[in-house]
Amino acid sequence: MSALPKLRVICCDLPAPPLFERDANGERQGYEADVCRLLAAQLGFEVEWAYENWADFYPALHAGRGDFILCGQGISDYRKTLADFTAPYAVFDEAVMVKRGSPIRSVADLVGKRVGAIANSLNMALAETFTGAICVPFGGDSDDVLGDMVQAVRDGNIDAFVDDDVALVPLAEEEDLAIAFSVPTQNRWGIAVDKSRSQWRIEVDTALAALIADGRLQKAWEYWMPGLNYPFSR
């Protein structure tokens, strides 16, 4: 019996639980990893991870090094100029992370403060609405841009950074980090497909709709993120 064809999924290789991380055996686990496997099974493929640095996601997609990007891509106007997107497979709010003990508790406390976020992300778009804050973009050319922002807060090079709440809740369990406040932005995360492959995007969208309709997506969500409300109704 021949092996299934490969579905090459562009993503980054860094720890960001509960979305993705490698287990003790080196296998990619987490909500997004499960979504990829479910989609691959629905489409008749086997997943193959195409690891890239964050900044290289869209060049890799355009060069054909992967079939789509499924890795924390909030659907923004900027990203829609780079690729077409499926319907969302996740919806998250955003939060601001600081060192534990920081006096920052609200947007008003960010006046004159250095606030980091990934460049050209929805998180940076939110940071840019914080009146008086000094926005500090972090490039995605690092092996671990989230880790870079965490370290910058720890070192005092920035006062805070913005990311989606799902990524920050686990970090807030560390003794020196805390979530200052959250913003109910309801960012929609989608799968990015090259604009030249419109029929392929329709196929992926159809597969995703099937996962939502029969409850497989909800089951994965509730396994990895039981503390967050599932955003889709069947």
What this model shows, in words?
- This protein is an alpha/beta fold and 234 residues long.
- The chain has two domains: 6-90 and 188-225, 3-Layer(aba) Sandwich (D-Maltodextrin-Binding Protein, domain 2), CATH 3.40.190; 92-186, Periplasmic binding protein-like II (D-Maltodextrin-Binding Protein, domain 2, 3-Layer(aba) Sandwich).
- Helix content is 31%, strand content 26%.
- It has eight helices and twelve strands.
- It has helices at 31-43, 57-62, 77-80, 122-127, 145-155, 165-171, 198-213, 216-224; strands at residues 6-11, 21-22, 28-29, 46-51, 68-69, 84-85, 90-99, 114-118, 134-138, 160-164, 177-189, 192-193.
- The protein has a five-stranded mixed beta sheet.
- Strand 8 (114-118), helix 4 and strand 9 form a beta-alpha-beta unit.
- Helix 1 (31-43) packs across helix 7 (198-213) and helix 1 packs antiparallel against helix 8 (216-224).
- The longest helix has 16 residues, at 198-213.
- The chain is globular, with a radius of gyration of 18 Å.
- The relative contact order is 0.20.
- The mean pLDDT is 95.
- It comes from Ectopseudomonas oleovorans.
- Residues 6-225 form the Solute-binding protein family 3/N-terminal domain.
